[in-house]
Amino acid sequence: MNLITKPTALSLKIIEEYIKPGDIVVDATAGNGHDTLALAKLAGTGGKVYAFDVQPLALEQTKTLLEKEGYFHNCTLVLDSHENMGSHIPDHEKKELSAVVFNLGYLPGGQKEMTTQAGATIAAVEQALYLIRIGGIIAVTMYPGHPEGEMERASLLHFSENLSQRQYHTAYLSFPNQKKSPPELLLITRKC
Ligand SMILES: C[S@@+](CC[C@H](N)C(=O)[O-])C[C@H]1O[C@@H](n2cnc3c(N)ncnc32)[C@H](O)[C@@H]1O
Asked: Is the model's pLDDT at 145 over the cut of 90?
């Protein structure tokens, strides 16, 4: 696959480097379950995936996919906003997550009004910063091609620019010659 032409695949390829079998990870936007399944495969049978979504339909679709592929047993599906993720992770798993993955926007084929919102997304990334372990990663796929997505990107970039350089390292991947506002990636790792 020509990875730089497929931002979501590029994001997963990077995430792969941060997850090993047995790890605990979060999919902050379950949607149709494709990312949850990819994370469940990386975490393996001894690992655990928490997947959040605010739409029951999304979690039903995620459950169906996970059951079909045989990965439902190590996934916990949570019908709640990702900004509350900390309250669903038990204390002994806090600061142990190796990855928190966001694929922003709206459910493909679903209601566009149910898109992720900048305020809740920033609150969720703040939670994720607290929950990941040293060396863990937060990977955010942003969709600046629609108005809410453009605001979300601006908020996330402003937020990440102001993170402590001592504690975190951030990366921002965009695709400057592509005219149709393709997805962009924001990556944050915790250094200490
Ligand atoms: C682009 S889709 C995710 C795609 C998904 N990761 C996949 O592999 O199919 C974005 C999802 O975010 C969900 N969402 C919107 N606001 C949310 C929130 N505050 N907390 C959690 N999920 C949210 C939407 O319902 C939608 O299903």
From this structure: yes
Q: Please give the tally of structural domains in the chain.
A: 1
Q: How many residues does the chain have?
A: 192
Closest CA to 77 of 3, 85, 69: 85
CATH assignment of the domain containing 67:
3.40.50.150
* Chain center to CA of 69: 21
CA of 35 to the centre of ligand 1 (A): 10
pLDDT at 105: 96
Predicted confidence at residue 179, as pLDDT, reads 93
- Please write the tens of the pLDDT for every residue from 21-56: 999 999 999 999 999 999 999 999 999 999 999 999
Residue ranges lining ligand 1, Cβ < 6 Å: 29-35, 52-55, 58, 81-82, 103, 105-107, 114, 116, 120
Ligand 1 centroid to 53 CA: how many Å? 6
Cα–Cα distance measured from residue 165 to residue 160, given in angstroms and rounded to the nearest whole number: 10
